[in-house]
Design goal:
It is an enzyme of class 3 (hydrolase). It catalyses: 8-oxo-dGTP + H2O = 8-oxo-dGMP + diphosphate + H(+). Belongs to the Nudix hydrolase family. One of its GO terms (molecular function) is metal ion binding. There is one protein chain. By secondary structure, the chain is α+β, with helices and mostly antiparallel strands. The chain has a single domain, classed as Nucleoside Triphosphate Pyrophosphohydrolase, CATH 3.90.79.10. Helices cover 17% and strands 31% of the residues. It contains two helices and seven strands. Strands 1, 2, 3, 4, 5, 6 and 7 form a seven-stranded mixed beta sheet that branches. Bound molecules: 8-OXO-2'-deoxyguanosine-5'-triphosphate. The site of 8-OXO-2'-deoxyguanosine-5'-triphosphate has 13 residues, from strand 1 and strand 4.
Length: 158
């Protein structure tokens, strides 16, 4: 299937708003698996203390009325100072916090010559497929990282 790339211009549906209020929808957290030449960008959280030092994909909570793609574009700009184009989903929807939230990760690529800066994280690393287990990921990310491994290997130029 052809990968579609988007940059927050409304390809997907906004979440939140007033739909489905009787049954509380899980809060959506989006993450960007930014891939460059067979490596993915992993980011070490700096806060809060319970998750500091754990590694994650850049991203965050989708705001009411915002699309998932737009949230990823916004979070990558805020956290890393970069522009990204968002591609296909990677891995499963992962329920977190006793089902109160759900993690959704998307493949992404850098726009132009933009270079990620650790504006909010304590450290950034570009990981090859064989290095994916070298950092302690947040627990919700583990099944996503497993699904990412073959995707990364397929884009590795070496
Ligand atoms: N961004 C991100 N968050 C993740 C991942 N895995 C995972 O369990 N989480 C959790 C950590 C946090 O509890 C939550 C995301 O919250 P956040 O604090 O990063 O979101 P945010 O940037 O919107 O923050 P805020 O405005 O609420 O302060 O999801 C991941 O790969 N990326």
């Amino acid at each position: 299937m052809q990968t579609e790339w988007a940059s927050g211009n409304g390809r997907d549906e906004p979440t939140g708003g007033f739909a489905g209020q009787g049954r509380r929808e899980p809060k959506v957290v989006v993450g960007a698996a930014i891939i460059v030449a067979g490596r993915v960008l992993a980011c070490a959280r700096s806060s809060p203390p319970e998750t500091a030092g754990r590694w994650e994909f850049p991203g965050g909570k989708v705001e009411p009325g915002e699309t998932e793609v737009a949230a990823l574009v916004r979070e990558c700009a805020e956290e890393l100072g970069i522009r990204v184009e968002v591609g296909d989903r990677v891995g499963p929807d992962v329920r977190m916090g006793h089902g109160r939230s759900v993690l959704k990760v998307y493949a992404a690529r850098l726009v132009g010559e933009d270079q990620p800066q650790p504006l909010e994280h304590s450290e950034l690393r570009w990981l090859r497929p064989e290095e994916l287990d070298s950092v302690p990921w947040l627990p919700a990310d583990v099944p996503v990282v497993a699904a990412l491994r073959p995707v990364l290997a397929a884009t590795d130029p070496s």
